[in-house]
Amino acid sequence: MLSVSSMAQGEVEKLSREYAKLIGHQNQKQKIQHVLKIKEENNSLKLVGALFRLRDAAIVDSNVSLLNFKKKIRNTKRRTVLIVRAGGC
């Protein structure tokens, strides 16, 4: 009789855990808080993603600016060489 009772108790506990998994949070307030936490985390991750995109765009922009700067230096050097060769300086 005692073993049947302990087996039944074990089965009840097992079914309770499975039921809790199926329905999620049994307490509606806990469920709301959990959803709010997930939404906050999602918004935070979206913000981090946006910041990374801005950083990447700034890096690309700075690389383009650096390339333009290097081209200007090269052109200035070429003009200086041409002026010196022509004897203008």
Description:
The protein contains two helices and no strands. By secondary structure, it is mainly α. It has helices at 2-23, 28-86. The protein has a domain at 27-86. The termini are far apart. The mean pLDDT is 78.
Which keywords apply here?
mainly alpha, 89 residues, 91% helix
Summarize it.
The relative contact order is 0.04. This protein has helices at residues 2-23, 28-86.
Task: Describe the protein's topology.
Layout: H1 2-23, H2 28-86
Head-to-tail CA distance between termini: 113 Å
Rg, Å, rounded:
35 Å
Number of strands: 0
Tally of contiguous helical segments: 2
Averaged pLDDT, please?
Answer: 78
Biggest beta sheet summary: none
Shape: rod-shaped
Q: Tell me what portion of residues adopts beta-strand conformation.
A: under 5%
**Proportion of helical residues:** over 70%
Assembly of the depicted chains: single chain
Structural class: mainly alpha
Order of helices and strands: HH
**Spans with pLDDT under 50 lasting ≥5 residues?**
none
